[in-house]
Amino acid sequence: xxxxxRSREGLMKPPWKSLYQKSAPKPGKGKTGHKHLWxxxxxVLTERAPAIWDGQREQxxxxxxxxTIEAAIKRELPRQFRKAMNILADGFTTGIRSxxxxxxIPDHHHNIRDTPSLYTPDSVETAQEFQRIxxxxxxxxxxxxxxxxxxxxxxxxxLSAILYGGLHQKRxxxxxLRSLAxxxxxxxxxxxxxxxxxxxxxxxxxxxxxxxxxxxNRTWIADPVTELLMLNWRQHFPDEHEKAKSxxxxxxxxxxxxxxxxxxxxxxxxxxxxxxxxSSRDIDVLPGFLVEYQSGHLPCTSLPPGSLxxxxxxxxxxxxxxxxxxxxxxxxxxxxxxxxxxxSANVEKSxxxxxxxxxxxxxxxxxxxxxxxxxxSNQSPWEKITTAKTLKAINSVLRHGCPYLTPAARLLxxxxxxxxxxxxxxxxxxxxxxxxxxxxxTYLSLISTGVLENIDTDELRDLxxxxxxxxxxxxxxxxxxxxxxxxxxxxxQQFHGFLTAKFGDISEVDFDEIFACHGLPSKRVKAxxxxxxxxxxxxxxxxxxxxxxxxxxxxxxxxxxLAFRCGLRRSExxxxxxxxxxxxxxAEIRIRPxxxxxxxxxxxNRRIPLYAxxxxxxxxxxxNWLKKRQREELDHTQPxxxxxxxxxxxxxxxxxxxPVVHALRSVTRDTTLSFHSFRHAxxxxxxxxxxxxxxxxxxxxxxxxxxxxxxxxxxxxxxQDLLNNQQQGVRKLHAIAMLLGHAxxxxxxRSYIHLTDxxxxxxxxxxxxxxxxxxxxxxxxxxxxxxxxxxxKRENPSRSAIFQNQLHNKVQRWGSQWKLKLDSxxxxxxxHEKTAxxxxxxxxxxxxxxxxxxxxxxxxxxxxxxxxTDATMAKLMYERLKGLKSRxxxxxxxxxxxxxxLYDVSHGGLVSRNIxxxxxxxxxxxxxxxxxxxxxxxxxxxxxxxxxxxxxxIETWSEALGIPKEQVKQKDFGPGKGLVxxxxxxxxxxxRGGRVAIASGGWRFVLALVDxxxxxxxxxxxxxxxxSKTS
Length: 1031
Hints:
There is one protein chain. With 1031 residues, the protein is α+β, with helices and mostly antiparallel strands. It folds into 5 domains: 5-98, no CATH class; 118-203 and 211-304 and 754-824, no CATH class; 346-517, no CATH class; 528-745, Intergrase catalytic core (hpI Integrase, Chain A, Orthogonal Bundle); 842-1030, no CATH class. The protein is built from 44 helices and 14 strands. The strands form 4 sheets. Strands 9, 10, 11, 12, 13 and 14 form a 6-stranded mixed beta sheet that branches. The protein has a 3-stranded antiparallel beta sheet with strand order 1-2-3, with helices on both faces. Strand 11, helix 42 and strand 12 (968-971) form a beta-alpha-beta unit. The chain is globular. It starts with 15 loop residues before the first helix and ends with a helix. It holds the Pfam family Phage_integrase. Residues 525-765 form the Tyr recombinase domain.
């Protein structure tokens, strides 16, 4: 079989030919069974799917046929099964993209390497040394604080944190001492400190080294021994905590080991010796990944203080409820810095060509097809753009636009081509997988305009290191927000890596210095989670507990369930097809290249078992929605989530996800949360379920984990469904990476799992990790008499129960004296007072308007509230705006912020040259149906205007506003950019009985508040007052 003639490279058809070349062994590396592997693949495919092996277009394989192929390969290649299935996965993925195949994608098999054993002869010998230190430490507890100095007492706390609390990394010791000086964070019997790393904590030779964001902050949760010791110390020495931050860790530990009578082994630093000794003991009692974590070999991002407080208490900080302003695409566009000189024609042409290319890739501009040299088609505007089309478009721009492209523009396009290829580049900070076309468009659009406007026609390779830094810092001045600056800086760093790989002699650039100058972290991880209690409130607000629900509510429930319970990305949920969910025997979702969206990378192709991850009631909702869509559509390649009002192919992303995010921020009162936070919560909680041991005894479970899915039976069943066995080791970590679609579990830990600190503290509270205290030591530590010690041990037979009982008593007795941070929380709001439609579509400015009107006299520090008729007008307008539904509310969300920007207080109206603004203003007031409101316009007087031109202006604007021509009048309103002032007029009964027209103060108040919400700038309260009185 090894000599099969068709296995030769020249006789193979795409996509198998390129895969054969990539998988071939390198010369001189020995035999790897390469020919035999491909001979088996050829034999199986020619017998069961010959058209697939021949690379024919529009072929399909059913699930049953694929199962027989998989079983045949497993039978023929038991040792190389994983490698063969990965080859099939790559081949099927290419066939779906380029040949139109309809085939299932095999799961990408991770090569689970055998981790080296942590048990070594040195670790065994070091564990014996730990026993000697522990004996000395426990004997000192029998005469606690006797004859000790301040340095020795603080050093004893630090020694306990190293021995029992997992504080093994030297870089956190200074941060731990600084945090010790502040009041502790306590909830029930849990005590934790927030550690913040500072540059001065690093050794002098490493002061210039910038740490990544997952190393800048950490939460240290105390073990029972250290917690009791800290509470006892604060009780007996209440004024000593201020001295902790001025001490040096080495001096403190030296005083502590002298106090207990231990002699340090020669040849090593004291901190390093104690960390090694404590780690040798933890190897025997902790899971391996927790040992790696506390040693710093497995980085993980901790939760910020507010999120950790929500996790423990189930409550949210008492803060002002704020929303991110709703802005239009025009407002979100960067306001470019005015340049003294205009760029040359070549630069302008290059910018237009690259902008047109990115618009084509995103499918937001039909005219961009002509720029890319491609023909127009009748495809759906949401149909995916494949990698092949992206390469064709970039090459077309390079070929047809060559006379107009500057050297920098050509390099940018060549960088875009390299991003389409599957190649690992450490210089570009890239893995081996190619980027999705939408990501390539985003990369180019972020930096192309800034680079081209500032480099002109010069060659990039001729720039010096200083000139590169000036160029990149200038490009970084374009974006306004910190998030945009971070994304732009990361793309610049990758582009410079591409230049270095291409030319080799490019000047080096210190990006750490550039990041530091703009106050940006070198790596960013947005750590946050959503608790189960908050998730249940979200489900309830979308009608989960009602028997009758609207179609929109059903769509949002499906989105919520798939995001929180399965950890799917936005793009993966948005592009789901009906055929991607199988529920015949065991329900599961297949994430694979489809009609609308591709996975983020090759490892994104995966199967997610809904039967194992979803509770029955939530699985029923997803199944019922699937059955409804199957009855509605005969073609199962149609989207799973289709627009219920317009019947479009896909729901726009902002329409599908923004209401969920707004509801999430309303429930948690945390504006830093995003839709991606659901994915973080899924990764964190799934890890806890998989590693949760059967004998784990936690008396006070945090409120964020109080859910049926954390019961012992549910955790056991999940582990069996995902792993098919109960083996310890890295298999569970790879299961998390597989569910998330990551190539390695390090990525999952570094960016998505945020409760490793708490999990480490949970294991530290088990009997096997706790020391056996003598009666005298327990009495000294907990402040008990002999009778109290005997009673405690009689009522609590285990070590963990003894410590938990004493911690609870200690906190209840002495907690109020330390001003614990327990007075800044309020219960999570239950959103019963608003309907689901209000929660979905009420924009932030309307919600803020309602809050202002409810307490009109209490907001004078921002802007004066209206009064009298103006207040009635504002309230009436608010009620009418709140009552808008669906598309009307979307229209109001879009145009009112525009009107707020155009409103001029001195003119009392909207100053504009655009006739569309008049039409939109008329449409808005027709929607709200306010009686007593009419529109008027004043156009600018110009001596150069002829009579015909004035008549044409009057006719055009009167038709747009729907008013008589008499209400379009001439007025000299001074110099400015606007041509016409659009005024909102309110009729009011005068004292004499006649009707007079006044400017509506309520309308002006609405626009002023919207403008304040968008700009977040102080508003002058006297502006409104003066104009209101004048009116």
